[in-house]
Every structure is written in C-alpha cells, then in structure tokens.
Amino acid sequence: MTIKVSIDASGGDYGIPVTIKAGMKALDVFQDLYLYFVGDESSIKTELDQYPSNILSSRYTIIHASEVVLMNESPAIALRKKKDSSMRVAINLVKTLKANACVSAGNTGALMAISRFVLRTIKGIDRPAIMGRMPTMTGHTHMLDLGANVDSKPKALIEFATMGSIAVKHTENIASPTIGLLNIGEEDMKGSEKIKKTAELLKVSSLNYVGFVEGDDIYKGTVDLIVCDGFEGNIALKASEGVALMMSHYLKQAFTRNLLTKLVALIATPVLKDFKSSLNPGKYNGASLLGLQGIVVKSHGGANVDSFLAAITEAYVEAHAKISDKISLQISKELEHNE
Fold first, then answer.
1. How many structural domains comprise the chain?
2. d(CA 133, CA 151)
3. Least C-beta-crowded within 10 Å: which of 55, 89, 99, 225?
4. Could you say which residues of the chain have pLDDT below 70?
5. Do residues 21 and 115 both lie within one domain?
6. b/e map of 195-211 (b: 16 or more CB within 10 Å)?
7. What pLDDT sits at residue 86?
8. Domain for residue 44, yes or no?
9. Is residue 269 part of a domain?
10. Structural domain containing residue 301
11. In terms of domains, do 102 and 35 share one?
C-alpha cells in the first residue's frame, strides 16, 4: 500500500527550503511513501533542482498554489479569502482522497479552522483536539489537548481521552494505553468540579484510566496518555520547550567559561550530544489534529529539516494505521451502544 501525504510546502517560518528537503529525506526513508508538494510551483522546482537526475522524481507531484497563509493571519481571513493557499489545497487533497494525510507548519489557528471546514469532524465528536508527544525519563508520553480548545467541558475531555487512546494504541502498539487526567494533585478531592466530573466519567468508561497526574508526572512517563484542556496543555508544551532551551543555554555557559571548562566539554562531547538529543523538542515534532474525517499533522512553525521530517513521519505512521477510520469506528460503536 502506497501512503500519500500532501505537504503544505509554503507554510511555516521557513517554508519551501525546509519542507522540500525534509520531504526528500522522507522519500528516501519510506519506500512506500508518495508526496504532493503544494505551494509556489516555481520556487518548489528551484529547490528540487538541487537533486539532479533525481531517482525519486517519480514519487512526488508538484501542485501549484498561488497563496500562502501568513503565520500571524487570522483564521477567518485564511478560511474566507485564501481559497488557493498552499494550506487549503493540501487539505483538499485529503478531502478528495488523493492524499492519506496532510502536514503543515503553518498558522495553527488557520490550520484547525480550514481542516474543520474542509474535512468536517467525525460524527459524535464535538471538537477536534491537538495531540503531541512530550519527552519523559522513559521515552515519551502523549498529551492532548495542546491548544485547540479552551475551557473544555467533561464530555469533550472524554472524547479527547477516547481519541487519544485509539491513536496511541495503533501508532505505538500499546494494547491498552494508560490514561491520566492532568490535575493540581493526585487526591480525589483536589481540582475543579469539571475535572472531578471528568474523572468520574473516566472511571466508569472502558478506557484504561489510572487517575490524576500532576505536572511533574508528564516528564516521569507515569502514563501513556495525558488528558487536559487546551489551555493547560499548551502552557505545559511551551513550558517544556522553554526549559529545554534554558538548560541548553546554561550548559553552554558553564562549559565555555574558561579553558578548563572548555577542555571538560571536549571530553564530555558524546554525553552532551546525547543529552541535547534527548531534550530536543524537534525530535517530538508533529502534533495530530484528532477528530477530523482525515489525518492532519501540525508541525512546529520554526521546524528545521529534521524536525519537519519527524512531522512527516508522524503523518506516515498515522496513515498506515488509518487512525481517523479507527476513531470513527469506535465512536460509532459507542453511539450505537448509548442509543
């Protein structure tokens, strides 16, 4: 089975120079991958000229899009006025079933708005959610929502847990992913009424709910999936990225202070490289917009080539696992059961 992914080549802070290089790397890694590069055709061809006599040329198609959604553009303008944007055209390819998934590093709000309008949500899902991976002491965990919804009600949080559990199960090959609900404490009496109500609903669900988790549990790897409102989730995500940058900053300062520390740094280079790789946010790039009738993956806007490659990889894995179809099937079964 060939997996076809549409790339919003013009989206993000760096656009075509990064997205095309990452796409070509992905084609080299995944032999059953086919890509649609969507954006300014002339600029894409110029970038591809770096690959003379390219043997991969039969595994991609360039699709011209005359417009670009700017990173600071309002979702409403992007949706109503830029119908030939690279983002919109790339998502349309998923709608028409020409592509199995779409990847964009563009404006998050616009991506969510356009995706909801074009693809629609799965029947039974009120709100899509953004799920991403977070580094932990044991590898990584998954977390949603990371910013698509603010002030989510218990029903929405249960939907997030259901969708996230299905996605983790089939992309990580975990039979029954453990689920934790982000809270200010582990005790039952702590938290808002919304969180307490959500916990009660999770306890009687078929999901593998293990209880409340606190902020530090995110990085301990206590559970496979952490459920939260988009407000808290986005703060946790940005905080973790900030901590990684701060640690890198102070390590660099410490090891370049004088000749002796520079010598120590030279000796410790392999350890430092491994440390940097473990905390590199780009390694976990690629957040899923779950709940749509199609697969859409959001890359960090400032992603470099390797980070954008990670987002393409996420889309490839989800498309192989047919995540949207599996979520739709599960939600449909639950709706039938509740009738």
1. 2
2. 22
3. 55
4. 271-272, 274-282, 335-339
5. yes
6. bbbbbeebeeeebbbeb
7. 97
8. yes
9. no
10. 3-125+291-322
11. yes
pLDDT given at position 336: 67
pLDDT of residue 279: 61
pLDDT at 337: 62
> Under 8 Å CB-to-CB from 157, ≥6 apart: which residues?
181, 194, 198, 227, 228, 229
Q: 236 with 137, same domain? A: yes
- Tell me what pLDDT residue 249 has: 82
Secondary structure (3-state) at 53: coil
Check residue 97 and give left, alpha or beta (phi > 0: left; psi -120 to 50: alpha): left
Q: For residue 92, is it within any domain?
A: yes
**For residue 221, is it left (φ>0), alpha (ψ between -120 and 50) or beta?**
left
DSSP 60: E
273-285 pLDDT, tens digit per residue, is 766 666 666 678 9
**How confident is the model over 301-323, as pLDDT tens digits?**
999 999 999 999 999 999 999 99
| Helix (H) or strand (E) segment spanning residue 5 | strand 3-8
Residue with tokens 């799965």: 122
**The two structure tokens encoding residue 155:** 């029903």
Q: What's the whole-model pTM score? A: 0.90
Same domain, 57 and 105: yes
Whether residue 266 is contained in a domain is answered as no
